[in-house]
Amino acid sequence: MTVGARAAIARMARRWRLWSWIGLAIAMGVGLGWVPLFGVLGFELATAAALFAAVMGLDVGAALARELQRMPVVGVARADYAGRTMVRSTVAAAGVACAVAAVPAVIAAVRGMWLPTCDWGFGVETYAAMPLVTAALAGAMGHALGVVCGPRRFVGAAVAQLPSVLVAAGALWRWYSAPPVFTYNAILGYFPGNLYDENIQLRSPLAWSRLEELAAVVAVVAVDRRDV
After folding, report:
1. Using one digit for the tens of pLDDT, what is the confidence trace for 121-131?
2. Nearest Cα to 163, choosing from 68, 57, 17?
3. How far is residue 123's CA from residue 101's CA, in Å, rounded to a whole number?
4. Which residues are paired to 183 by β-bridges?
5. What element of type H or E holds 134?
6. Three-state secondary structure along 208-222?
7. Sign of dihedral through CA atoms 112, 120, 204, 196?
8. CA-based Rg of the chain, rounded to a whole angstrom?
9. Which of 18-22, 98-102, 132-136, 191-195 has the lowest mean pLDDT?
């Protein structure tokens, strides 16, 4: 992580936006404790957290891009390659998004010390493969879109949510056209459809789907480096 990225994160930590997302993550982790199946580490919690992670990651990534573009340049600024700068700031955005997305999992893990948790290993695996990966991809994509939009707050925040709207629209169309069909997408990761048993397993198609989504994000970031 570059000095600029660390400074931008420090600036974000002094603003309401990041703390609002952290507060929502805490509220989500605490509130889901009252909902059966969603209160401990498992597929249900991972599904709900993935929805939150997508919206939050896109917004946080774009916010980091705006902070980087608003930061004053003091003294002699050392030039760096555009690609290297973009990669480092993108990794920083993905990391911040993952940190916020992990909050409900931490709360659920603590709750799981006194509430029965069916399968700790599967719960951790599911949370990592679904909401945490979603948060990383969303943070990176939101950051790339934020670089394009520049320091304009409302424009950047609105444009950053376009990927989630498009993915959600595609998923809803598939849901209504063929309800029993499972889906792999960039928001949820994996959803088995509305007709499924409780023996849910994450298999290699999810890994390939995530790799495809990562390749798409990398392509956007690679094209976007010229604007850094």
Report:
1. 999 999 999 99
2. 57
3. 15
4. 191
5. helix 133-149
6. HHHHHHHHHHHHHHH
7. negative
8. 18
9. 191-195
